[in-house]
Amino acid sequence: MVLADAPLDNMTRAKGSAATAPKIKGSWSLHQILGQNVDFFVLLSSVSGTIGNSAQSNYSAGNTFDDSLAAHRRSLGLPAISLNLRHVGRPTL
Fold first, then answer.
1. Which secondary-structure segment (H or E) carries 81?
2. Start and end of every Ketoreductase domain (predicted)?
3. With bands split at pLDDT 50, 70 and 90, how would you rate the model's confidence at 88?
4. What is the pTM of this model?
5. For residues 40 and 6, what is the distance between their CA atoms, to the nearest angstrom?
6. Sign of the CA dihedral 18, 24, 26, 27?
């Protein structure tokens, strides 16, 4: 996971790509390489793709891609689920 936070009006192409490219390229590569030869295809997304996070439009876009890829695979009759996880880790005080 790469975070390159910035308000949308300050989001550069480099910051946008830094957060979206690893998830999009990685997920799409797995989809292409594995194709139909799997029983399960689980993508770890984030609730940020659904509700958004301030200054993380790029991160949210990458997670929305995973949600859409899972829907695409299911439309092809292939297994897929995208889990929209909330923050995972120790709570901060």
1. strand 81-85
2. 1-91
3. low
4. 0.79
5. 35
6. positive
